[in-house]
Amino acid sequence: MNLHQPLTVLPGVGPKSAEKYLKLGIASLLDLLLYFPFRYEDFQTKNVLELEDGEKAVIAGEVATPANVQYYGFKRNRLRFSIKQGEVVLAVNFFNQPYLVDKIELGQTIAVFGKWDKKKASLTGMKVLAQVEDDLQPVYRVVQGVSQASLVKVIKIAFDEGLDLLLEENLPTVLLQRYQLMERSQAVRAMHFPKDLAEYKQAVRRVKFEELLYFQMQLQVLKSQTKDEGNGLSMLWDEQSLKEKKASLPFSLTEAQEKSLAEILGDMRSSSHMNRLLQGDVGSGKTVVAALSMYAAHTAGFQSALMVPTEILAEQHAESLKELFPELNLVLLTGSMRVAEKRERLAAIASGEAEFIVGTHALIQEGVDYAKLGLIIIDEQHRFGVGQRRILREKGQNPDVLMMTATPIPRTLAITAFGDMDVSVIDQLPAGRKPIVTRWVKHEQLPVVLDWLLKELQKGSQAYVISPLIEESEALDLKNALALEEELKAYFSDRARIALLHGKMKSEDKERIMQDFKEKKTDLLVSTTVIEVGVNVPNATVMMIMDADRFGLSQLHQLRGRVGRGDKQSYAILVANPKTESGQKRMKIMTETTNGFVLAEEDLKMRGSGEIFGTRQSGIPEFQVANLVEDYPILEEARRVSAQIVSEPNWQEQADWQILALNLEKKEHLD
C-alpha cells in the first residue's frame, strides 16, 4: 500500500463514502492522515470548584435528585436533575434530549460533559459519558454527509492498518535534534490520538515548525534567486553631495528615517539587486527618505522613477520633489496628457535629460524608454501586481526597486507577505507633529458634534465625512452617501459648501472633486470610498466617520491619517453605537493610540491575517495548524534557520539539507 492511493483501499470504505470525503479535500490516504482536528475535548473530570465561568468540562458526581422532562413549545423540552460532587450540589440541564432520562438513576455515579455557568451553579449538558473517559477527543471540521463519528472511524482504520509508518520523514535529523522535535509519523499519530496533553503539545510544536519552515524555505529560495538574477546595479553615489543636501533640508531626519535611508543606500551601493519594502506609519516621512534615495542615484549618474496609483498623487509628489530639488530636471508623465506634451517628455526621458521621472502606471507603458534608469520607487505597493513589478525592472538594466506603503503591516505579516523582500520600517513621527485627537461619540450626540463642526469650518478649516460601509454593495454605499449628503446640507444650508465623492464616479470626476477640495473651493467632503491614500490637504483638520464600527482598525487608522497634515490641531470623530464587544473594543483602542503598528497588531489579533489584507490578494498563505500571530516566535526561528541554510553555497547538495531540497521540489510540482 502507498499513501497516494485512494481511500477505497481501506476496509469498509466504498466509492460513495470516498466521494463524500472529497468535500473535505481528502482524496488520498496521505490527505486523510494529514487532516488534523481543529480542537480537542478534554474528557478528564474536573473539580467543580476549579471551573471558570463558561468553561466546557466533564463533571462526575452522584445523581442527587430524580431526572424529569419539562415540555414547552413545539419539539422543545428540558431534562433536569442535580448531581453532588463532594459537598457541592449542582443543577444539570439538557435541552431537547428527553431520551437521556432513562440513563439517569438516583444514587448512581455519572459523568456529564457540558458548559459551566458559575452564576447559576449549573451545567448545560452536551453528553452523558457511560464511563469517565480520561483522554482527549479530537474534533474535526466536517461537512454535510460526513459525521464526526464516521471520520474518526476511518482515521482509526488508517492507523490500525499501520499507514502512519509509511510516512516519510521530511525534516533533517540535524533540525529534529536541535529543536528536540518528534519524528513525523509519531507526531501525526499524536495529532489525532494523543496519549495525553503533553504528547499532543509536542506533536503540535513539530507540525507547526514543519509548516512554517517549508513556507520560509520557499520564500528564501525565491529571495536568493531574485538577488542572483542578472545581478543588480552598483550605484556609487556621492557621499558629500548627499550630506550637503540633507543639511539643506528645512528639518532634520528622525532616527527611524536615518536608519531606513542607510539600509536603502547600502542596497544601492551593493551589486545585488535591491528589492526592499519601506513601510511607515501615516505622516512618518517616507517620501523624504524616497526623495533622498532618488537624489543619491542622481549623484551616481542614474535616473530615478517614482510610480504612484493616481494622477493627483503624481502631481502632489512632483510638486514636493521640485521644492526639495529645484536644480534637477523633473518630468511628470500621466495618461491624460496631450500627445505633443507627452512626446516632448518621452524624448527627455529617453535622452537622459530627465533626471527624476514621476508618474502613474504610464511609466511602464510601451514606448517609454529610459536612458539610464537606476532606481524605481513604487508608492502604495499593494496596488501593483507582480507582473507590473517585473515590467518595471525590465525597463532598465535591472534597476533597484523600492516599494513604499503607508499601511502599517505588523512585523509578523511583513515577514510573511513580503518574505522575498527586505523590510525597512519608519515607526517614528517627525518632531513637532501634533497628535490627532480621536473621540468616539454615539449617534445620539450627533447634533452636538455638528454644532462643534460648524464652528471649526467657520475658523476656516475643512472636513471629511465618511459614510458607512456596506459590505459588497456599491449601490447601498451610494444610497447611504446621498442620504448623508442631504442630511448635512439640510443642517448646514448655506453655511458650508458640500461635495460628494463616491465609487461609481469616473476617475476624472473624482480627481476634479479632490482638486476642488485641495483648493478650498469646498468646505466639507462627503465620501463613500476610502479617501485616496496619501492625498495631502493640510487645511483639512476633521475626519468624521459614520458607523465607524463597520471598519477595521487599519482602515480607521488610514482614514484618520488623512487629517493632521498641517500645523493646526486635527480631530478624528468616530460616530458609532457598536453592538458587539469587538466593535466597542475597536472604538476604545482608536481613542487610546495613534500608533499604526500597535493598531495593526491589535487588528491582526482581533480579525486574523486574512481579513486585513484579503488573503488571496496579499499572498498570505492559510496554514493548517500554524497561526501567524500566536506562532510568531516559531515563524521567526523558521525564517532565521531557512535564511541561514539558503545562504550556504550549493546547500541543496549538502547531506544535511538534501531532504529539504527534495521536498521543496515536490511541493513546487504540487503548487
From TrEMBL:
GO molecular function (one): 3'-5' DNA helicase activity
E.C. designation(s): 5.6.2.4
PROSITE patterns linked: HELICASE_ATP_BIND_1, HELICASE_CTER
Ranges for domain Helicase C-terminal: 449-605
InterPro entries attached to this UniProt entry: ATP-dep_DNA_helicase_RecG, DEAD/DEAH_box_helicase_dom, Helicase_ATP-bd, Helicase_C-like, NA-bd_OB-fold, P-loop_NTPase, RecG/Mfd, RecG_dom3_C
SMART domains: DEXDc, HELICc
Helicase ATP-binding domain segment(s): 267-426
Keywords: ATP-binding, DNA damage, DNA recombination, DNA repair, DNA-binding, Helicase, Hydrolase, Isomerase, Nucleotide-binding
Gene Ontology BP terms: DNA recombination; DNA repair
Catalysis: reaction(s): ATP + H2O = ADP + phosphate + H(+); Couples ATP hydrolysis with the unwinding of duplex DNA by translocating in the 3'-5' direction
Cited function: Plays a critical role in recombination and DNA repair. Helps process Holliday junction intermediates to mature products by catalyzing branch migration. Has replication fork regression activity, unwinds stalled or blocked replication forks to make a HJ that can be resolved. Has a DNA unwinding activity characteristic of a DNA helicase with 3'-5' polarity.
Protein name (record): ATP-dependent DNA helicase RecG
Native source species: Streptococcus himalayensis
